[in-house]
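The protein record quoted in full:

***
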Amino acid sequence: MFDKYFEDFQLGDVWESKGRTITEADIVMFSALSGDWFPLHTNIEYAKETQYKQRIAHGMLVLSITTGLVHFEPGVVVAFYGMDKVRFTNPTFIGDTIHLTGKVIDLKSKGSNQGVVTVLQEVKKQTGEIVAVFEMKLLVNQKTIE
């Protein structure tokens, strides 16, 4: 998706990523990395007593995994610019396969050589349910004119 220059994007451009299955190892490694051992994610017996009846992936883990589902071309993408309106709308369970759909919803020039591309991202699982939605902003180079 982010392998083209700012002026090559159009409002309404859409794309879909490949899928990625969430594993128990993902949850354990993310808990260790982040220090977030909340029992809804890491304790089977605790999770059985919740409305979800099983462990769920951390919301921030789901967002982190989505960064690996997007192609960011070095030299085109300058930097991650931010994220707005993040919502977790359904649980992501161990064994769910998630993918992203994206739609360009805003383009803002930042001078003569860069711009911010805003993409409405939906994280969906194999059932089609949306598990997270957010607006991602990336600072992208414009083509260099020689």
Notes: Residues 43 and 61 are 17 Å apart (CA to CA). The chain has one domain: 6-141. The chain has a mean pLDDT of 95. The helical segments are 24-34, 39-42, 44-48, 59-67.
